[in-house]
Structures are given as structure tokens and as C-alpha cells.
Specification:
Elements lengths: L1 H20 L5 E14 L4 E6 L6 E2 L4 E6 L1 H26 L3 H33 L5 H30 L3 H26 L2 E3 L4 E6 L6 E2 L4 E18 L11 E6 L5 E12 L7 E2 L7 E2 L1 E8 L11 E5 L3
Antiparallel strand pairs: 1-8, 1-14, 2-4, 2-7, 3-6, 4-5, 6-8, 8-13, 9-10, 10-13, 11-12
Helix pairs in contact: 2-5, 3-4
Length: 320
């Protein structure tokens, strides 16, 4: 009996030494991450209303926060006034002179033409009398000059009438149309800024953080709400390069989530990247060799993990 007990004790001691001599079981610990979207305003404004709470499930396009910006409203009013003025100028250029102005120009031309005809008739009469020696050369020259001046005035009046009848020049109409388009562009720019006073979620997910408070000033580009997409989660592991073959691209492995009562899930590696030098673990040899670098490995669950949330630990044990 004592012999059997001694043999059993010896076998247990031998097994303990053998177990102690075995290399430790590989053990890796990482944590779950998820896609987060920070929603921030493009214009500085004061927070008027907050429509969501932390933990709330929302769809893409949901209204998160309303901002109040008197400056944007004032710029919109200015842009609309500039548009109206430009449109009035374009309408004026397109329509040309008023009918009354055209009528006045036509009558002025007719009056000038009548005066020119009379001056031409007088010149012909004086020329005939001069040929008969009844008037002096001075009188003939004055009549000729008056006829020429009256003809020039009639031509100028006709040009004024043609100008009024044809309306604005093509260049003037083009310039007026360009001013109208410029004003419309300014309005579109201000309307785009006004639309940014209503912050909407670009993605579906869960509201993770609400940093906005009614009455506070929201600076430009500072996030006021963070939305996390729980459908887009992955595991992050820091792996020394001599263990990296266990987590090759496309490799699948099993991890355990202690926060979910030890539930296991299968993951697939889709990303590897070396960490900076300060993350080096240790030298492989004391006298020569190289330093073992650390790599960041991302692995996505093969199937959705119900209840998994960012920050939960994932333990990977044993050989992959």
C-alpha cells in the first residue's frame, strides 16, 4: 500500500515538473471598437434645442440639434435684397426703354427731320437766287451751313430713336444676367449655411455622447453629438511580431467575451499595422539580434455579437 502511495506521489511530482517545463498557453487580450461619428456644426451658433438623449437609437437623417444664428439670418436678408436689385436691373435691360420714351424719341427725330428738310429747301432756293446774282455769297454759304447742320441733327435724332427702340445692348443684358446669377449664388451659399443650423445624423446608430446644452455657444467644427454604429464593430489586439503568424490576414480565430458571461465568437483578421517605436516590447537577444515590434491587429466578428459594445474585453487563448 505504501508502495502504491509513493508511486502515485512520485508520478504527481514528475507531472508537476513536466507541466512547469511546458511553455505558457498563448494569451491575448483586446477590446471591441465600433464606428463612431462626431456631428459638429459648420457655423458658430448658439444651441437652441437638443432633440436626442444618450442611448437613444436613431436613423440616418434624424434631427439631433438645432442652432440659432442671427448672423446667418441677416446675411440671408442681405443676399435676397441684392438678388431683387439685380433682377430689377436685368428686367430693365431686357425690356429696354418705356413706350413713352420711344415715342418721345420718334417725335424728336421727326421734328429734326422736318427742320432738315426745310433747311435743304431754303438752301436750294438761295443757291438759285445766287446763281441769278440776287443774293450774296455770304447768304448762300449760311444757307448751306444751316442745311448741313439740320441734316446732322436729324441723323442724331434718328440714332437716339433707334437706340430707344432697340433697347439695351447685348453686353448690358449679359452683364445684368450675370449679376442676377451672382446674387442667386450668394443666396444659395447663405441657405447652405442656414441648413447647417439643423444638425442631422449622417448614419444610423446609437447616441453615445451628447455634449450640447441649450443656450451654450457651439464653436465651428466642435462635436456636439457622437453617434456609434453598433452594427460596425471590430476587435483590436496588440500582438508582438513573433506571434503575428497566428493572426495573418484573413485568419479566423475564437475569442471569449467575459462581459457576456464568457460567450465565444469567431473573428476574422482584416487589418494589420505596426505600432510606433515606443510600443516595442523587448529585445529577442541580449547581445545581438533585433527588437520585437508590436502590431495592431483588427478582426471583425464573422457574425453579429448580440449585446457586444465598444470597450468590452475579448480574450483569445491557445493556438489559433
Amino acid at each position: 500500500m505504501l508502495l502504491l502511495v509513493g508511486a502515485a506521489l512520485l508520478a504527481f511530482v514528475i507531472w508537476g515538473f513536466w507541466r512547469a517545463a511546458q511553455p505558457p498557453v498563448p494569451y491575448f487580450q483586446g477590446q471591441m471598437e465600433a464606428r463612431e461619428t462626431d456631428v459638429a456644426g459648420k457655423v458658430p451658433a448658439r444651441i437652441a434645442q437638443v432633440h436626442v438623449k444618450e442611448g437613444q437609437q436613431i436613423e440616418a437623417g434624424a434631427l439631433l440639434v438645432e442652432l440659432d444664428s442671427p448672423e446667418v439670418r441677416a446675411k440671408l436678408a442681405q443676399a435676397e435684397a441684392a438678388r431683387d436689385a439685380a433682377q430689377a436691373q436685368a428686367d430693365k435691360a431686357a425690356r429696354g426703354a418705356r413706350p413713352e420714351e420711344v415715342q418721345m424719341a420718334r417725335l424728336a427725330w421727326q421734328r429734326a427731320q422736318a427742320a432738315a428738310d426745310l433747311a435743304e429747301t431754303s438752301w436750294k432756293r438761295v443757291q438759285s437766287l445766287y446763281a441769278q446774282g440776287l443774293v450774296s455769297a455770304q447768304k448762300r454759304d449760311e444757307a448751306q451751313t444751316n442745311a448741313r447742320a439740320a441734316t446732322a441733327q436729324a441723323q442724331a435724332a434718328r440714332a437716339q430713336y433707334d437706340l430707344a427702340a432697340s433697347g439695351a445692348r447685348t453686353e448690358d443684358r449679359s452683364a445684368a444676367d450675370a449679376q442676377t446669377r451672382r446674387a442667386a449664388g450668394a443666396i444659395a451659399e447663405v441657405q447652405a449655411a442656414q441648413a447647417e443650423t439643423q444638425l442631422r445624423s449622417p448614419v444610423s446608430g446609437e447616441v453615445a455622447k451628447v455634449l450640447a446644452r441649450v443656450g451654450e455657444l457651439s464653436p465651428q467644427g466642435v462635436a456636439v453629438v457622437t453617434v456609434v454604429d453598433l452594427q460596425d464593430q471590430w476587435l483590436v489586439l496588440n500582438v508582438r511580431e513573433d506571434d503575428l503568424p497566428r493572426f495573418a490576414m484573413g485568419q479566423r480565430f475564437t475569442g471569449r467575451l467575459p462581459a457576456l458571461a464568457g460567450r465565444t465568437a469567431e473573428f476574422e483578421v482584416f487589418y494589420q499595422a505596426v505600432l510606433p517605436d515606443f510600443a516595442t516590447w523587448r529585445a529577442t537577444r541580449g547581445s545581438q539580434g533585433f527588437d520585437a515590434r508590436t502590431f495592431e491587429v483588427h478582426a471583425r466578428p464573422v457574425a453579429p455579437i448580440e449585446g457586444a459594445r465598444p470597450g468590452m474585453s475579448v480574450v483569445v487563448e491557445g493556438a489559433v
